[in-house]
Amino acid sequence: MLDFLLSSDAIFALLTLTFLEIILGIDNIIFISIAANKLPEEQRKKATNIGLLLAMVQRVILLFFVSFLIGLSEPFYSIKTSWLTLDLTWQSIILFAGGLFLIYKSTSEIREKVETPNHDENSMKGKVIKSLQQALVQILIIDFIFSIDSILTAVGMTNGLSDNHNYNLVLMIIAVIISIAVMIGFANKIRLFIEKHPSIQVLALAFLILIGFMLITEAAHLSETALFGKTVGAIPKGYLYFAIAFSLFIEFLNHKISRSKTKK
User: Fold this and answer.
1) Which residues partner with 80 through β-bridges?
2) PANTHER family, from UniProt (predicted)?
3) Assessment of whether the complete model's pTM goes beyond 0.85
4) Using one digit for the tens of pLDDT, what is the confidence trace for 12-58?
5) Beta bridge partners of 231
């Protein structure tokens, strides 16, 4: 396992996944902050830290569940027609559904952030919280909703890195733990940075669209789908890493240019 974790593919996947997990966790941090701010001041920091720790535990449990389903790679139903052939497995179904969900969720989030950027925050502010326990329950419910795209992103980034699903699971758990640890240490600073640079979060959502499309093609490849005699191939993850790295580099250049203009 150590050889796998120290391989260049695993290290790059870990860094990319950790970055995405942190960026995707921004909304979670905002909601947790809103929920915590409704409590007495002495309980706010405690509620934030406990909420993020519970979020980590919840995501690790979900990772085990999803990884178990991904491991079910034996076909249980086959379709063979003149124009379509495929062997359905639970693995391919989960990946296909996950890809569709990521594409839908990402495009919806981008539209909401452009048209009504404070919609979710305003609806959250209207909810009454009277105790620490009530705040934690609300935080857990919110985090469960946000965990779905986070978990599917992790699956998309690590699926196929190793033939051993346990190795991929360990890599995903490490990424989740690191991202939550960073969020606990720098929650407010991260939130303020994203508020100043909202394009970073929109960029992360655009990455999710890429990952969603990759999951769909991966599902078709694993189910040995053939359309009109043409098989569907898997997209090499190197292309995805390059697209993410290139986009971040352009964003970094834009940030530097805008800062230079501000100084002048």
Assistant:
1) 85
2) MEMBRANE BOUND PREDICTED REDOX MODULATOR (PTHR30238), SLL1022 PROTEIN (PTHR30238:SF4)
3) no
4) 888 888 888 887 777 677 677 767 767 777 777 787 788 888 888 88
5) 226
List of long-range contacts for 125-134, beta carbons under 8 Å, 24+ apart: 125/34, 128/38, 129/35, 129/38, 129/39, 131/39, 132/39, 132/43, 132/46, 132/47
Reading the block at residue 98, the tokens are 């996950």
The first and second tokens of residue 145, run together, are 């909703």
**Model confidence pLDDT, tens digit, residues 73-101:** 778 888 888 888 888 888 788 888 888 88
Rounded to 10°, the helix 132-158/198-222 angle is 50
Name the nearest CA neighbour of 176 among 68, 53, 90, 37. 53
Q: Residue 225's beta-bridge partner residues?
A: none
Burial class (CB within 10 angstroms; exposed 0-12, middle 13-18, buried 19+) of 252: exposed
Handedness of CA 186, 188, 194, 197 (dihedral sign): negative
User: Across-strand partners of 87?
Assistant: 78
Delimit the domains of the chain by residue range: 2-257
Report long-range pairs for 84-92 (Cβ below 8 Å, ≥24 apart).
84/225, 84/226, 84/227, 85/224, 85/225, 85/226, 86/220, 86/223, 86/224, 86/225, 86/226, 87/223, 87/224, 88/223, 89/222, 89/223, 91/219, 91/222, 92/219, 92/220, 92/222, 92/223
Query: Rounded distance, CA 138 to CA 129, Å?
Result: 9
DSSP state of 234: P
Residues 6+ apart with CB under 8 A from 58: 140, 143, 144, 147
